[in-house]
Amino acid sequence: MSKDKKARDIGRLASRKQAARDNPGPSPLRGIGTFGMIGWSVAVPTVGGAFVGMWLDGTHPQDFSWTIALILGGVAIGAGIAWVWIDKEKGE
User: Fold this and answer.
1) Rounded distance, CA 30 to CA 33, Å?
2) What average pLDDT score do residues 61-71 get?
3) Where is the composition biased (Basic and acidic residues) (predicted)?
């Protein structure tokens, strides 16, 4: 085998490896990670809103429930965060 053929083979192999690194393709583990990230991005603001709402209901009572209002606000904020995160992942 000549040196030129060996060099071409090595170059071709390096190009394939670089292409695989640059474009990894779909992965089941990446899907699980995305699912977890979306879940946390909705759950944290929702639970935070519930705790702040319960505290406000105890310290500053109103005709409406702070807890319900802030839970809904947390869900809306979390959905917005998840939406932005998904759009960012699509762009990659």
Assistant:
1) 5
2) 94
3) 1-11
Please write the tens of the pLDDT for every residue from 16-34: 888 878 777 777 777 777 7
Give the N- to C-terminal CA distance of the chain in Å, as an integer. 41
H or E stretch including 38? Answer: helix 28-59
Nearest-Å Rg of the Cα atoms of the chain is: 25
Q: Sketch the domain layout of the chain as residue ranges.
A: 27-91
Distance in angstroms (rounded) separating the CA atoms of residues 66 and 49: 9
CA 25 → CA 14, 22, 68, 74, 86, distances in Å?
Answer: 18, 9, 42, 33, 16
pTM of the entire structure? 0.65
Closest CA to 38 of 89, 91, 2: 89
The burial class, CB within 10 Å (0-12 / 13-18 / 19+), for 45 is: buried
Contact 69, 53 (CB under 8 A): yes
